[in-house]
Batch of 2 targets.
Target 1
Amino acid sequence: MNGKKFTTHSSFSALIDKYDGFILDQFGVLHNGSHGLEGAPELVADLFAKGKKLIILSNSSSSSEATKAKLPKFGFNPDHFIGTVTSGEEAGHHISKCFPGKRALFLTWKTPKTPSPMKFIELCGNLQVTENSGEADLVILHGVDVLRGPGADGEAKEQPLGSYYSDESYEKIDPILNACLERKLPMICANPDFIMVRPDGKIGNMPGKIAQRYEKMGGACTSFGKPYVPHFEACLRELGLPKDRVAHVGDSLHHDVAGANDTGIASVFVTGGVHCKELGSPLNVMPPDSALEALFERHSQTPTHVVPMFRA
């Protein structure tokens, strides 16, 4: 436990007056990709009404603008947030600056997808995509469905990456990684999450595991988003508040709690997210301290606070 102790709370209400600003994760905290989670839109509205500053920090490969535009779909008022910081936005700007005019292997989501994967390429400046590793200068890990070739949006070639998303099969992915490794291509990961909880409750495997695999093979990968401290610091600058008046709310020990701990701010761990099955507790039910302690010990991260869900 590294000498750190956490406090548990049956609802988020007990934490409202402890902080002036909250950095909020999306999936598992605000929504599940299909709809807002129970009580979350109402809690955001209440926090805003109480004068709290709210900002979204997301390991989403979408742009900040696209992320904000989707909030009404989940039942949230975009005006209740002072902004959004996404890993996709940061990765796109980095590629535009460091790889102008280059060609990239583009692992992404299949179409139709909203927003289109090509919206991310627009963030990357005059970058070109290719399906040939022999002519690529870098590899972009944006999604896990397809390797996308050149062409107009909706007409581009999409080579399926197999069943990785559902069962973490690397059958189609490893040959691509090996080809990239042979040419020592740098990888840029626009979403370092390992897993997500799908709307149907099943686990979806995310780009972060592929990035980790490429690094273990000996490849070089630059990842953007949580748990990296610069992204938390970007939120702190937007909030304009001292660190001790800000808490980050998230459901991942690997990304949310680890990043908050490294940044030196308080964290609120939501048990009803990516670790819910590991904890073995129903949604909106606080697991026993013994289960929480075992989880935190296993993952070497301890949050400041624990709540079952992001709701009052």
Target 2
Amino acid sequence: MRATSTKKKHVTKKAAGKTTTTTARTSTTRATAPSGTTAPATTTPAPIFIPPPSSPPTTNAPTPPPNLASVRIKLMTVATGLDSPVALAWRKNDSTMYVAQQTGKVVAVQNGHVLATPTLSLSVSHGNEQGVLGIAFSPDGTKLYVDYTDPSGNTHVDEYQMQGTVAKASTRRQVLYQAQPYPNHNGGELIFGPDGLLYIGLGDGGSGGDPNNYAQNLGTWLGKILRINPNKSGSAAYSVPSTNPFVGHVGEKPEIWAYGLRNPWRFSFDRSLGDMWIGDVGQDLYEEIDWVHAGTAGANYGWSQREGLHSYKGAKPAGARDPVIERSHNDGYCAIIGGYVYRGNAIPKLRGAYLFGDDCRSNITGAVLTNGHITQQRDLGPTVDQLTSFGQDTADELYAVSRTGTVYRIAAS
């Protein structure tokens, strides 16, 4: 077993999930949603396949696949002066760009200008990986969902009704709550999938090396991606889809969709094929990008038994999936930033490529997946200092976010 590391290569990193700390915080579970500390299941279930409502093509190779050697891109500034931006979102039939600022506000940007009235202001904890971490709009655009850590450092996913560009504070409704044992590895991604359900990313609870083995424990939400219907259901804050893989399993949380993750800071769905891509931030040496075919439920990505393709605490769990991309800290990587498969029209030669980056290594990288394997990878040229996230608008065009306060649109060069 490798010893737990507390080193940090890039001290300015915030939400990408590389801080390791051993200062625990007393946590309590509220009645609205259990934090989940029951014993893990004794067996590792195999992933199951659930066809999504709209069946994607059975092949994951674009036709024809992009040739990354011929792709030239540039960055176009679309917003500046933001305060630690970490996530973007758009509403249906609306060109307004909404930006989550880690320091506590969600703001609206129209024609390059930040509107004077914030969309939402929250009281948050201000640790290195805390604050406002993710936002998403309901498919019809009427509701805003926000993932943040409260002043005590615990995770909330709240719902607000939208009125114009403002989330009405009086309509706040807590959908989900997770007590956090440590101040790092909070995840924070929120995204509605092609099935219209809300996917929520939670890290392994923090410290370093997953000391409580939460990521492999199906009795807790920590180290998981959850899948819920966030609409209120009777007296319950949300409902769990009956097709979730662990529904009805004693001692296992029914909200869990995928597990074995350290800190799935940013993940996304391919809007053409429905596949899920996950950027899972690594521990000592390796960063990873995970991929799974559309509709695959219950996938185990191996942490903390595995870090990337390598042993961390022991043997690879039975049925666990290997990453499709691994990056080493020895090559300048430190905190992987998952992106999106490009499906827009502005850069035809890029269509079908997956774009990702890293908080320490500022290059934007493209990768092509063919029949479940990466067949091309290339740095595409532009760099983003302190990259925190990517975004995808309603026209499938992509954006890159810098913690320094700038949002860029990725364009053809």
